[in-house]
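User: Quick sanity check before I run a bigger batch. Here is a single chain. Can you write out its predicted 3D structure?
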Amino acid sequence: MDQRIIEATRQTLASNDVESYVHAYAVFARGDREIAGELSGIIQPALAITGELDPGSTPQMSRRLAESIPDCRPRIIPGARHMLPVENPVALAGELNKFFSDNEGNQA
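Assistant: Done. Predicted structure follows.
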C-alpha cells in the first residue's frame, strides 16, 4: 500500500476526538444486543460487506447481519482486513456499484 495513504489515514485517525471515538466504540460493542430485534423490520435491500481478515467486523458478523435483515447480501472481500475503503477501494466500489445497479428503482 502507498505510504502516503497510510500516513494520511494515520493522521486522520490520530485527529479523532478521543471521547467521541470511545462513545462510538461503546455503541459498536453493545449495538448488536440493542438493535437485534429491529433488523427484521428493515424493508430496503441492504449490503453487509467486510474484509475476509477483518478482526473487528468479521465475516461471521456480516453473515449474521445478512441473515437478520430481509434482502441483505453478505459480501466478503478476499485478503482484506478492517479498512476496506483504504485497503481495497476498487473492490469496495465494485461491490457498491453492483449493489446499487442491482437495486436501482427498487422501492419497498
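Residues 54 and 81 are 4 Å apart (CA to CA).

User: Great, the batch can go ahead then.
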